[in-house]
Amino acid sequence: MPSFIPLTLLALVVAAIVAHLASPKVRPWLWKPVAALGAVMLVALWYLGLFWAPPEQFMSDVGRILYVHVPHVWMALLAFTLNVGCAVAYLMKKSWVTDALAESAAEVGVYFGAVGVSMGSIWARPTWGVWWDWDPRLISTTVMLLAYVGYLALRSFTEDPERRATWSAVSAILSYVSLPIVWFSVRWWNSLHQVQSNPSTVDKPMVQVLRWGAVTMLCFLYVFIVKRYEIARSRQTAAMELPPLEAPRPEAA
Asked: Helices 66-92 & 161-175, crossing angle to 10 degrees?
């Protein structure tokens, strides 16, 4: 597979996301071609990961699960970054839009993170000999996910929308502190988990399949957040008789 193909597909997905943000006219339907692209790429990923990419030197075929494990974790980190960005935006200028988007990003991020950790556990059993180890990377990742589960639970503790949105925004900022700890845990502490690889230390076909997997999961990340955001906004509108979608929130009296 030529190396430019995953990067070209990545550019297409990023362009679709930019178009979604810039043009309200395309929002009702743009997720559909992105979802179709993700489905096609997922089928191709099964073939590329299972048959096209060579076995890993030390892990053999067990290492093939990394083509879906790693992209899932990447998407979780990306979703949580979107969550904290929306939380900061909400505190700076209150808006129902950013509150709903923060909630959507957190929920989707928990999904991707939970699937990523589950796949990591499946990988660990034949590699480390255990399903779970009190490893700094595993502990910090679990704490991160629990923090965002707590963020989602906090949103159900009060029916007052003003208080819920403000408390949730603060919780999102505090929860995001866990992300750099997760990322640098393998460098700061003695860990079973290997440090982050880079294209210069990984066989070229493996890099291409990993990038393919990342773009595939990015398609689904976009679709899941878009659809979850629509649900969140619809609930807001129904519960508080808010203005139509995308309308800014009126300032509190």
From this structure: 130
177: closest CA among 84, 98, 247, 246?
Answer: 84
Q: Which two tokens mark 16?
A: 């679709």
Cα–Cα dist 45/36, whole Å: 14
d(CA 128, CA 137): 14
List, for residues 177-189, the tens digit of each pLDDT value. 999 998 887 777 7
Distance CA 182, CA 136 (A): 8
Cross-strand bridge partners of residue 56 = 60
> Which residue, 140, 143, 118, is CA-closest to 191?
140
CA–CA dist 168, 157 (Å, integer) = 10
> For position 129, what pLDDT does the model report?
81
Q: How many CA atoms lie within 13 A of 175 on its CB side?
A: 33
Report d(CA 73, CA 155) in Å as an integer: 24
| CA dihedral for 13, 18, 20, 21, sign (positive or negative) | positive
**Domains, in order of start, for the chain:** 4-240 (1.20.120)
Q: Amino acid identity, residue 135? A: D
Q: What is the pTM of this model?
A: 0.88
Nearest by Cα to 167 from 156, 179, 178, 177? 156
Report the range of poorest mean pLDDT among 11-20, 39-48, 227-236: 227-236
